[in-house]
Amino acid sequence: MPGQAAVVVATIAAPVFSFRVPKPREVDPFFGGTRTFWLQRVLRTKRNGFKPEVESIVVRKTGSDRGMRFVVYESAAAYFQKLRNAQQKSEVAL
Q1: Phi-psi region for residue 12, left (φ > 0), alpha (ψ -120 to 50) or beta?
Q2: What pairs with residue 59 in β-bridges?
Q3: Beta bridge partners of 20
């Protein structure tokens, strides 16, 4: 229209690299996993033979004991794909 400026909005969908472990009683926005679910898969524990199933990154200030833990999205997606493949194989065997 004459006298009005056209506004063009462009969005660029950046690939997700990681997401933060959810707060207690919340779930992550990508897979719906709870804090407990993700911590069981990213921390080195006796349950997983001290080999985490999903990769994570901790960001903390120098000298600090605490920080923010992020789950690597690609590793989480690979974990679910592995579960899916295992379930499909077990369904075929039946």
Answers
A1: beta
A2: 68
A3: 70
Average pLDDT over residues 13-42: 93
Q: Which two tokens stand for residue 21?
A: 């472990």
Q: Compute φ and ψ for 83, nearest 5 degrees.
A: -65, -40
Amino acid at 71: V
Q: For residues 38 and 21, is the Cβ–Cβ distance under 8 A?
A: yes
The model's pTM is 0.78
CA 29 → CA 1, 13, 33, 65, 94, distances in Å?
A: 40, 16, 8, 27, 34
β-sheet bridge partners, residue 58: 69
Per the structure block, which two tokens stand in for 20? 């933060």
Q: Write the pLDDT tens digit of every residue in 4-27.
A: 666 666 666 778 899 999 999 999
Contact 69, 21 (CB under 8 A): yes
What tokens does 40 get?
Answer: 């069981």
